Amino acid sequence: MFKTDDIVTYGINGVCKIVGIEEKELLGVKRDYYVLKPVTNDKSTYFVPVDNSNTTSKMRKLLTEDEINNILDCADNEKLQWISNERERKECYKKIVGEANHTELIKMIKSITCEKKRREKQGKKLFASDEKFLRDAEKILCDEFEYVLNLSEKEVLAYIFKRVGKATEE
Fold this sequence. Notes:
Elements: E1 7-10, E2 15-26, E3 29-38, E4 46-49, H1 53-56, E5 59-61, H2 65-76, H3 86-99, H4 102-121, H5 128-149, H6 153-164
Antiparallel strand pairs: 1-2, 1-5, 2-3, 3-4
Helix pairs in contact: 2-4, 3-5, 4-5, 5-6
């Protein structure tokens, strides 16, 4: 269970602070809700039912700097595999983004980046859906990594590619 003032990541919504736990009545049912405010956008607010495991499973405490570095070091050794069937690739990437698994997100970023460079050499562009998945994956990683490592978005991407970039430099 989380408490007020905890800093968490909430799925694709990024790093949030739990500013409170409030009881609200919706459709005649009273429930407790975590009140989340994104750390980068104080205009948004998310209300997450405390007793709904489907939504609370998307919330988790932030990784530590050591955990981030360990994930990056392990991801450096991961083999890349491009899924050539566009429909299968979309389904796979949609699942990876939805689960926000850091290792899988990094593998996906590496794979898309390699394919992007390969296509650019042929004078072609990356599919728009792949570009979107790349942006989504980078946002999920960057929001948390920026906060934990105290770096800017550009610095975070450089940091990630420095540690796992060997495969993307080919």
